[in-house]
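Milestone 3.1: sequence recovery, worked example.
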């Protein structure tokens, strides 16, 4: 869809969102008691003049690659001999069917860690690592540069089938061709990703830590916050990701809800929006505000 098509969709955002199976919140998007703010030096005066809803394309799978970093090279997945690059190449050439609305695969580097470290600026991508596959809420662990494409094709193909079959228990999966690879279910209630890619745009590097802190505070009040060392089921994990497009719409907030299979992509968010986002989007299973939505998607929910 071209730019003209995107702009035409703006006035019909509420109707389109409802047609996607999402409810529109009748609560305020702003928390009046929130005192956190972005620095006054950040200017957003030119950010609110364009249509928001529908200005990012749908995708059928989001592959999250842990890197322990908060910032990345300008093109985060182009660095050769890294797991992120191997996954990005696989995604570009993949021809999988059954992913949902779109067969496109989004790949993101993230501050998530495979070894309980977070946000180490001196961390170097290794030739062996893990990948989180959303909206399946499944980890593929211990893949290598050499087997990433083969492993992900096999695993994602199986996940599509498992979901289509409505499995209520995740089967024990082992692949003789890849004996060191493990496939594990992630029991989190939700994931929330914030763009922190300051190399691409300084706004994201400044706004993301402020948003993350506000999410952590409010999620702790709900007993839902989970850090890297807390593997209790049913929590919410907050992490940074690299450039997701549309930095003029900072802060971008991408949410995955496990039980309903919903994906919510919000933009133009501020710290005083965090509590309403938790209450309406996460706790009330996907209620949204059309003026803040870039895209919503509803995937077939997983049962495992």
């Amino acid at each position: 869809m071209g730019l003209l098509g995107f702009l035409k969709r703006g006035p019909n955002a509420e109707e389109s969102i409802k047609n996607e199976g999402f409810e529109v919140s009748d609560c305020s998007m702003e928390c009046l008691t929130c005192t956190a703010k972005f620095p006054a030096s950040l200017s957003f005066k030119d950010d609110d003049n364009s249509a928001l809803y529908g200005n990012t394309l749908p995708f059928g799978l989001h592959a999250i690659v842990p890197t322990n970093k908060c910032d990345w090279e300008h093109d985060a997945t182009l660095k050769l001999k890294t797991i992120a690059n191997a996954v990005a190449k696989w995604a570009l050439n993949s021809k999988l069917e059954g992913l949902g609305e779109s067969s496109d695969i989004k790949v993101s580097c993230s501050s998530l860690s495979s070894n309980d470290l977070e946000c180490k600026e001196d961390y170097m991508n290794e030739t062996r690592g893990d990948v989180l596959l959303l909206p399946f809420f499944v980890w593929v662990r211990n893949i290598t540069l050499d087997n990433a494409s083969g492993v992900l094709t096999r695993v994602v193909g199986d996940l599509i089938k498992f979901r289509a079959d409505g499995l209520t228990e995740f089967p024990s999966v082992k692949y003789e061709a890849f004996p060191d690879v493990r496939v594990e279910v992630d029991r989190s209630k939700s994931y929330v990703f914030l763009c922190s890619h300051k190399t691409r745009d300084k706004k994201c590097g400044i706004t993301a830590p402020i948003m993350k802190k506000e999410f952590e505070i409010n999620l702790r009040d709900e007993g839902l916050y989970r850090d890297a060392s807390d593997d209790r089921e049913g929590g919410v994990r907050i992490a940074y990701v690299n450039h997701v497009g549309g930095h003029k719409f900072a802060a971008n907030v991408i949410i995955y809800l496990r039980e309903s299979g919903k994906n919510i992509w919000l933009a133009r968010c501020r710290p005083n929006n965090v509590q309403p986002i938790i209450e309406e989007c996460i706790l009330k299973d996907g209620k949204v505000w059309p003026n803040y939505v870039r895209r919503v998607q509803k995937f077939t929910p997983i049962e495992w």
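The chain has two domains: 11-55+188-298, 61-185. Helices lie at 3-9, 13-19, 83-93, 148-164, 202-221, 274-282.
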